[in-house]
Amino acid sequence: MAFQVNSVVLNSLIILLLLPFIWTGPVGPVAKHGCLDRCGNLSIPYPFGVGSDCSLDPSFNISCITSTSTDPPKAYITILDKEVIEINETYVRVKYPSFVATTCYDGLREYEKHGAPLNLSGTQYTLSSENWLTAIGCDDMVLGTEQPNGSLVGSSSCASFCSESNHTGGEGYCPDNGFWSVLGNGCCRAPINGGSSYLKAKLTDLSGASVGGRVFPCSYAFIQESRSGSGNHSAFSYKLEFLQNNSKAFSDEFMETKMAPVPVVRLNWRIGNKNCSQQLSNDTSYACRGRSICVDKYQVEGYYCSCFQGYKGNPYLTRGCQAYSLPVARPGCLDQCGNLSIPFPFGIGSNCYMDPTFEISCNVSTNPPKAYLSALNAEIIDLNLTQVRVNYPKLGFACYNSSESRSLIIDLSATQFMLSRLNVLTALGCDDMAVAYGKSKNTTFVGGSCAASCTQSYDSESYGSCARFYTLSTGFDWYVPATGCCQTPISRGNHHLKL
Fold first, then answer.
1. Strand locations in 26-152, DSSP E?
2. Which residue has the higher pLDDT, 12 or 444?
3. Does residue 22 surpass a pLDDT of 70?
4. Residue 191 confidence class, pLDDT cut points 50, 70, 90
5. Any idea where the domains of the chain sit in the sequence?
């Protein structure tokens, strides 16, 4: 049996002292020198750029289209030939008025079939998980796959039906709740796996009847982001008569219906195809400049850059990241250890911190250097205005075939920190309960407990699992029982915890 805390988050008690003075001056350049930083109403930050000499590589080249019919000018990602309406630090939003599948039936025969897969191969873009595969139609199933050969690996699917009451002269409706769509509304949506660069869709007739049984012969499938960048919902209505043929779909008439704009697709973007550990900082292709760090893309090749803590601006330009808080550290004191910004009241060296609680030691023998919270002798992973995240690989254990055991005690009573409720108590083992005892002044209380069990099929060669699942209907995380693991939140505000 083992009790484990791999990462501990400490809440600072002096939050007000950590609030910065806001820098009201410029935040540094946006575009490459001599290049346009705007197209119409859209800001164009480097590595994107208008013209090949102004972008990092062809994937980020922007075409700014100006004409008498385009006011203001519109920006297009050249390699995709799609209008871009937002460029974010990690994603772009593009208008994508294209079907990945359309099918019209004459009896049981498909008489018209169109659509093209979304293919981002060879670019620096992948589909975001903030998109849905959407199908509109009656009595159809849509199946989307992430492989050109139609393999079902990473597939998305849903079925769209129309109720009898809205067959004639009615409306279809696409709600916001994704795959929990109400049956009979002429629409369904399925989540898309993030990180994929290819999506192909196929529509299949579910009516099994003649065209008279289908009511409307045509169905369509397209990709649409689940929510817009401003947080607005993506629900919309459409006239079912648009399913009569494919000439009206996404036409001006269609766009004038209730809340039915051109679909917008969210694409994640990245730099290169190496992660941070593979990308050497002295490599000429390394994109992070100035006071910035490399950040890995989650489960995807490539990386992106981010300004040091306490700085903001464009991390891809030499002087792009500039301080937004004045000052960061005490005069004459270091304000940085490796990739970590060290704001006062924290400090490195004597007379640089408020009291011993906030002393930071910087290990310069590693590359990059690592910062340690001296009060716990623990490496700091992140330091912000209200929290410190530290690597704390200590555990308590008990072995019942011997007398060997050890308790884990986290004692913060002599510091300005307390445990955050973002921590969880983790227990690994079979048929055991882990209990964390907290202490507040002279009172001892249970700070968290959970039971770990294993199935009968487990043996010494088996693997336990701490897999966590999110239940949409309840909004709570839950763990699969009998997998040799359990986790439970730790009561907030503890200064002393014993496992």
1. 38-39, 42-43, 49-50, 61-67, 70-77, 82-87, 91-95, 101-106, 109-114, 118-119, 125-127, 131-136, 140-145
2. 444
3. no
4. confident
5. 2-8+394-498, 28-79, 94-269
